[in-house]
Amino acid sequence: MVLRALGGLGAMVTLFYVLWGFNYGQMALDRRLGLELSKATPEEMEVEFRRATTVLLEEAQRLPENMTSDQAIRNFEINDLDVRPDVVKALQVLGLPNAGCVRVRQLWPSGFLLRWNTAGIYIPHVLEGHIDKGLLSVQKPFTIAHEMAHGYGVTDEGACNFVAWLACSRSDNQWVRFGGALTYWRYSTTSMPWDSVAPVLRAFPPVLQRTVELINENDRKYPDILPEWRDAVYATYLKGHGVAHGLRSYNDVVVMVQQYLARQLPAEGPD
Fold this sequence. Notes:
Layout (H helix, E strand, L loop, with lengths): L1 H18 L9 H4 L9 H21 L7 H6 L4 H15 L8 E5 L12 E4 L4 E5 L7 H12 L5 H13 L4 H15 L5 H10 L2 H15 L6 H14 L11 H13 L7
Parallel strand pairs: 1-3
Antiparallel strand pairs: 2-3
């Protein structure tokens, strides 16, 4: 029985690498794009936070009335079919593989992943991504795009967040753009002192203040399980597969976006 159990475990590990895990060996997206994450300054992060705030306010102002209610924020219908075209376009812009139709499904029961402080997971053995069914609708576009990026072979968490940001920010779907802008804005706050974030929150229009409140309320419904153990295990897994920043890699998206935009949109000078 022990040998059979070990054999089954070995088969699962082998399938993990054959189906997806060997993607960890490819060149990191930040290097492909010529970005230098270690050179980000606090001043640049503050500028990016202000830019993300402006974008979020603009997207909130564009929301039609049927998308501003509590019901919409919680349950507005959104799924992977709404997001996939945007992810594919983003991958094409970045010169990354984008063939096939990666699925991202909602995992039942609600809170199963959120209690482990994760919103989604890509499972190579079934060739599909999954997000927690307990997420609010406004959180789903960015999370779906992130897991879909994993399905197309992107491994680094910060890189998947970058693909998700690019996909959502260029979408024709208003809800995808708003949800993406909000999730990215929340990432941008991680590099800022609370004294800088709090006044921005207080100045938000009612729909944004209410959205943040509903997200916080929803998070409290699913308290973490063994957070220290979980973080240690996952950080070890990431670093063991070449993700040097470990859990902090999720927040690398802010530096990546700032430097990417700086190169795409150079400051205008005299002719």
